[in-house]
Amino acid sequence: MTITKSVTFIAKEGSEEKMKELLTAMVIPSKAEDGCIFYEIFQYEKDRKRFMAVETWRDEAALDGHKASAHYKVYKSSYEPYCDDKYSDELEVLG
Asked: ABM domain: which residues (predicted)?
């Protein structure tokens, strides 16, 4: 069963570009991972401090592999100084 998540990040004031850099660095290596079906980062047009990652993984094992990857570890150890808030939601694909 696939896993689809949205992860929302709110950058700290003045940290929008650094947050954008950290998040976009995740796209290419994540898409190359076994089990990645969809992985994109979005920045809100009307609120430039707000970003959303939308990702779909083949199964829990693929998501666990993503969380164990080198690029995920870099992101995980780097984003907090630039992030005011972060939350995630599991999504159900309809149709």
From this structure: 3-91
Alpha-carbon dihedral 21, 82, 51, 31, rounded to 10 degrees = 50
Give the H/E segment covering residue 51: strand 50-57
pLDDT per residue as tens digits for the range 54-76:
999 999 999 999 999 999 999 99
- C-beta of residue 39 within 8 angstroms of C-beta of residue 5: no
Please tell me the pTM assigned to this model.
0.93
Task: For residue 17, count CB atoms less than 10 angstroms from its CB and return exposed for 0-12, middle for 13-18, buried for 19 or more.
Answer: exposed
Domain residue spans in the chain? 3-86
